[in-house]
UniProtKB/TrEMBL annotation:
Protein name per UniProt: Heterokaryon incompatibility
InterPro entries: HET, HetReg/Transcr_Mod
UniProt xrefs under Pfam families: HET
Domain Heterokaryon incompatibility as annotated: residue spans: 13-159
Coiled coil: none
Domain of life per record: Eukaryota
Signal peptide positions on this chain: none
Amino acid sequence: MFTVSLGAIEDQYFALSYAWGDAKDRKPIAINGHERMVTVNLEAFLHEWRNGAVLEDRPEMYDTSFWIDAICINQEDMSERASQVNLMSKIYPSAKAAMCWLGQGSRSCEHGLEAIVRLGEHFYLEDDDAAGTYQNLAWNGMQNLFAMEYWVRAWIQQEFALA
């Protein structure tokens, strides 16, 4: 982790958008040799990122820098939190992109993502059983995908608008 001026790193970092989850349910991570407690959902993202699972199709992103609110903002300091919230209108637009971590999904969510891709490829109902089975898996998967905690988080709309 390193400290930089926002203007000095424009387009050189990704802003992570994610659902915190239960703030009391925490796991330790190491930052510059020091232990820091973060929510289970953030730890899951960092674990997946570090192990390369998120990067399978994007090897050019291995050395990516992130702005992550729970790490970059001292959550114990109310004045810092307030000033950082005021900077959100600069943090997200200055990022190379906003990366959304929906959380650890299930196979059903994978069906939902596949269905979203197919929607763009003229996804339609068919009468035979095989297509009907896929159709049900796809729609159930999308329902499970959009039922994930990420979508109900209050900051998501602001982060999307700013990114």
